[in-house]
Write a structure and sequence with these properties.
It is built from 14 helices and 12 strands. It is α/β, with parallel strands linked by helices. The two termini are about 25 Å apart. The structure holds guanosine-5'-triphosphate and magnesium ion (MG).
């Protein structure tokens, strides 16, 4: 395996040299500053030709270390994407690699850098070793993620939970999944209520699931209907309330929903956000639905996207616990209690 070294005044220039000589698929094995700062600085990149050119004798070894390496393609993306910051990141290709993974998975650039900074990546403790450093970054990310299952309570208090979110985000399906799991796995007595004053037929979908499970399902157009339904289901351990999908831009309907479920009714609300939607829309929904004082996030449709970074971006903006993650259309199986390690894996899944 022939290692070639290229020097230039900036990382960008050195990267361009590697690309010109070895092509897009060359792999970078090290990057370092060899002289001075600012205008006088000199960077050196050591690279090897693309995998195809490597003899079989080395290919196993290459496979093993590849995850720590970075292709020139990725490096080019990064130097164009984060400018001067790439020079700070060049401590080891492993750090660049982790940063690139976060970015590729949709983690906001600002937060990706923040996690690296917080982990002490730039404090010059190079003796810490790469794995140790990665662990620190993972720890920083997991420290931010809070999880809480609202139904995991020891006593026999009656829990009433309403599920809110934009049209089609997965509220009714998620309620069906939860109702089934709470009944079958936790042996809870469950009842359902549908609050939907707008859409004819909205109740039918929920009622179908209720019939399959053999549990009651009430409809509420007004607050008095809601009170009536709650009274009727006094013996239930858990009552799940489905709400009509609201546009995140329609504040008057969000306010209307709030009037139906005032704070003294002891109804906890949970916001569903689809990971498959544009992040700006997700953000708008999170802000506007906050009028309903939701207590947790449920992230839906993680199966529909390769980029789950919006989960951590949202948590960084408004740090509330994540209660569940849904990952498919199948009822009841495609739902999981939020788990920090699994969420971390989702955030780094795209390599
Ligand atoms: N791929 C995938 N599809 C999902 C998931 N959750 C729900 N869906 C699908 O998304 C569509 C909408 O789901 P609903 O549960 O009806 O959504 P909703 O929020 O109740 O919609 P409205 O009542 O119209 O506001 C259905 O086709 C569901 O099967 C998920 O985790 N992954
Ligand atoms: Mg629905």
């Amino acid at each position: 395996m022939q290692i070639k070294k290229y020097q230039a005044r900036t990382i960008k220039e050195a990267t361009a040299k590697v690309k010109n000589v070895l092509g897009h698929d060359a792999m970078i094995i090290s990057t370092k500053k060899i002289k001075g700062n600012g205008k006088d600085g000199l960077f050196e990149i050591a690279a090897i030709p693309p995998k195809d050119n490597i003899s079989s004798e080395y290919s196993d070894l290459f496979g093993e270390v590849k995850t720590e390496l970075m292709s020139i393609k990725e490096m080019l993306y990064l130097v164009n994407h984060c400018g001067g910051y790439s020079e700070k990141l060049l401590l080891t290709p492993g750090i660049l690699n982790l940063y690139a993974r976060m970015i590729k998975n949709g983690v906001d650039d600002y937060y990706a850098r923040l996690f690296l900074e917080r982990s002490g990546a730039f404090n010059g403790h190079s003796d810490d070793g790469l794995n140790n450093f990665k662990e620190k970054v993972f720890k920083e990310i997991m420290q931010v993620i809070k999880t809480k299952d609202p139904f995991d309570v020891a006593d026999n208090r009656r829990l009433i939970a309403a599920f809110i979110g934009t049209t089609g985000v997965g509220k009714t399906t998620t309620i069906a999944k939860l109702a089934a799991q709470l009944m079958l796995k936790s042996g809870k007595k469950v009842g359902l209520i549908s609050i939907d004053a707008y859409r004819i037929g909205a109740m039918e979908q929920l009622k179908t699931y209720a019939d399959i499970l053999g549990i009651p399902c009430f409809r509420a157009f007004k607050k008095k209907d809601l009170l009536f339904a709650l009274k009727n289901m006094e013996g239930k351990n858990v009552i799940l309330i489905d709400t009509a999908g609201q546009s995140q831009y329609d504040m008057s309907r969000i306010e209307e929903l709030k009037r139906m479920m005032p704070g003294d009714m002891n109804i906890s609300t949970h916001l569903l956000l689809s990971v498959a939607t544009r992040e700006s829309e997700m953000n708008k929904a999170a802000v506007n639905f906050s009028a309903l004082n939701y207590l947790s996030y449920i992230f839906t449709k993680t199966d529909e996207t390769e980029r789950c970074g919006s989960i951590i971006n949202q948590v960084m903006k408004l740090n509330l616990p994540i209660s569940y993650i849904t990952n498919g259309q199948k009822v009841p199986e495609d739902i999981e209690r939020a788990d920090k390690e699994k969420i971390l894996k989702l955030l780094l899944s795209k390599n």
